[in-house]
Design goal:
This is Metallopeptidase family protein. The chain contains 6 helices and 3 strands. It is mainly alpha-helical. The protein has a single domain, classed as Zincin-like (2-Layer Sandwich), CATH 3.30.2010.20. The radius of gyration is 16 Å and the shape is globular.
Length: about 140
C-alpha cells in the first residue's frame, strides 16, 4: 500500500494520552500497582518555570518529567502529600521520533513513560540507564 501522507495529521495530546495509557496497561501487574496513584499528564511543552528550575534552556530537550515523592520516601503507610505526576511532552517526543526515524512513536512514548515511572520507584537517571543498557 502506497502511503502518501497527504491525509495525515500530527498525533494530538489525546492520541498521546491513549498511547501512554496503552503503555501503562502493558506494564507488569506489580509495576502498575506500585504506580497506580501516579497521574499521567500530556502537555505540548514543559512550562517556563520547570525549564528554569531544571536549568534547561530549550523545551525540546525535555521529553518527560516525574514530579512527586517516590515510593521509598513516603512516610510509613500514609499517603503522599500530593499526587505524583508524570509529564510527557508531546512536541519534544515528536521531535525525537522524527530525528531518530528508527523506532515507532509508541516505543518512544512507552520508553519515556517507563523512565519517569522509574523515578517514582526511587531510581535515579544513572540506575535507569543501567537497567536500560542491561535490557538491550
Amino acid at each position: 500500500m502506497d502511503q502518501t501522507w497527504l491525509d495525515q495529521t500530527a498525533p494530538s495530546l489525546d492520541d498521546f494520552d491513549r498511547l501512554a495509557r496503552k503503555a501503562f496497561d502493558e506494564l507488569p501487574a506489580l509495576f502498575r500497582q506500585a504506580a497506580a496513584d501516579v497521574v499521567i499528564r500530556i502537555d505540548d511543552f514543559p512550562d517556563e518555570q520547570t525549564l528554569r528550575d531544571l536549568e534547561i534552556g530549550d523545551g525540546f530537550d525535555l521529553t518527560g518529567l516525574y514530579v512527586g515523592v517516590h515510593v521509598g520516601e513516603r512516610d510509613g503507610l500514609g499517603p503522599a502529600p500530593e499526587p505524583s505526576r508524570v509529564f510527557l511532552y508531546r512536541r519534544p517526543i515528536l521531535d525525537e521520533w522524527c530525528e531518530r526515524g528508527d523506532v515507532g512513536l509508541y516505543e518512544i512514548i512507552a520508553h519515556v513513560l517507563i523512565h519517569e515511572l522509574g523515578h517514582h520507584m526511587g531510581l535515579d537517571d544513572d540506575q535507569i540507564h543501567d537497567i536500560e543498557d542491561d535490557a538491550d
